[in-house]
Amino acid sequence: MTTHDHTTPPAIPPIEIKVAIIEDQRKFREYLAALIDGSPGFSCTGSFRSMEEALDRISDSLHDVVLVDIGLPGMDGIEGIRILKERFPKLILLMHTVYDGDERIFDALCAGASGYLLKKTSPVRLLESLREAMAGGAPMTPEVAHQVVRLFREIRPRETPDEQLTPHEIRLLEMLAEGHNYETAAAELGVTTHTISFHLQRIYEKLHVHSKTEAVAKALRNRLIK
To answer: Which of 157, 175, 155, 156 is nearest to 219 (CA)?
Structure first.
């Protein structure tokens, strides 16, 4: 007589989301760590007081998602995520801050943040946002999302013929032709390097080129700049 093994196969454990925190306020940092460690499916795998400390110790093999404050002592969170994104392209970086101004949001997203949450976000929504980010989403506090939509409406390219550059874009190309780099051009124009990078991407699209050198060469060749 044939017997059948009815042993239940072992359950596959749920994927645990490994979260690191970069936050200079000790009590808030400890609160976040306790929330994450105390929630099923999450683990706090790093807690850092400054971006410098995080850059020394963080790695994408230890963490899935990093919650990053902007107003840190020393290097701020936006500059830090730019470096982290360059080092670890697959690491998910979420801003978690009190700042809700347009420029901070824009700079953070340009630097490589996958989402932007305000610190008043409820614990339940924060955990949902971590899951959403792991699933490939871009979680944002509702008022931040409204600002992002408005920002992109304002900067949407106008329907103009190819190569019709704005006066600002022409000025930027002229500065690059004169030998300026991202940092010196940003200082001269009173904007951030992320803003310079954004305008250059627009220029590349209009001129159908892929580098600063190509853009300057084509602009000179087509007499868009002198």
So the answer is: 175
Residue-wise DSSP of 27-55 = HHHHHHHHHHHTSTTEEEEEEESSHHHHH
- Quote the Cα angle for 217-222-226, to 5°: 75
pLDDT of 103 higher than 90: no
Q: Is 57 helix (H, G, I), strand (E, B) or coil?
A: helix
Given a cut of 80, is residue 152 above it in pLDDT? Answer: no
End-to-end CA distance of the chain: 93
State if pTM tops 0.85: no
Contacts of residue 150, defined as CB under 8 A and 6 or more positions apart, other chains included, come to none
Residues in the chain, total: 226
pLDDT tens string 29-78:
999 999 999 999 999 999 999 999 999 999 888 999 999 999 999 999 99
Q: Is 173 helix (H, G, I), strand (E, B) or coil?
A: helix
The whole-number pLDDT of residue 6 equals 56
Cα–Cα distance measured from residue 212 to residue 175, given in angstroms and rounded to the nearest whole number = 11
pLDDT at 52: 96
Structural domains in the chain?
A: 17-152 (3.40.50.2300), 167-221 (1.10.10.10)
Task: Please give the Cα distance from 163 to 71 (Å, whole number).
Answer: 39
Higher pLDDT, 167 or 4: 167
Angle, vertex CA 215, rays to CA 209 and CA 220, nearest 5: 130
